[in-house]
Prior knowledge:
Order of helices and strands: HHHHEEEHHHHH
Structural class: mainly alpha
Shape: globular
Distance between the termini: 72 Å
Radius of gyration: 29 Å
Strand content: 5-15%
Helix content: 40-55%
Largest sheet: 3 strands, antiparallel
Strand order of the largest sheet: 1-2-3
Amino acid sequence: MKALRQLFNFAVEYELTQRNPAKDVPYLKSGSEGFHSWTLEEVRKFEKRHKPGSKARLALALLLYTGQRRSDVVALGPQHVKDGWITLTQVKNRKRKPVTLSIPLLPELAAELAAEQVGNLAFLVTEFGKPFTSNGFGNWFRKRCDEAGLPHCTAHGLRKAGAAIAAENGATERQLMAIFGWSTMKEAARYTKAARQKVLAASGMKLLTLDQTPNKSVPLFPVPEDGGTLSAAKPLKDRA
């Protein structure tokens, strides 16, 4: 559909057609939610299995505390860090619309970098001292998740978890875009919407209880005991 929209835009510009019908076609809804987003309990379970100073623990910290894709994480090295900031150009769309980010080096990640022996050009290296490929790292991290009893968890799921945590802690859509490198608010809005729902549910759930005393208001003009109607001409002192 993206290609057809561009094709019809061209046709409209050169007066080969009067309108772009592809713009009226709605987006297809995905049949699944995609990669599983890690919970805090799953992160703790992984950390319990893989101790500080291990390569697996460093990989977890790089994924979670930078919010970047695995293709970016495997390329990160000491040369990307300066004065407490990480600066990188994301691999995705690098040749078409490159996205360069500068994000703070969080204390949690700094502690893992100090605890683990890292490579010269890449923080994460294979047993042969070479940087991981994106797919190679994905397969390696898959095994580390299996070892922790988390067969449903993936590297990309940590990126989703990071976005959810940031949104629930109050990050705005613009802030999420700056962290994760999204070019539109569409992706960021998914997380802020979910976060707002949780906040509203937390504040409103207390109203969903039977153990509450309703506010009883006294009518200005009470109905007579005989069931009759009140006369507007009747003096107010006689209406009680």
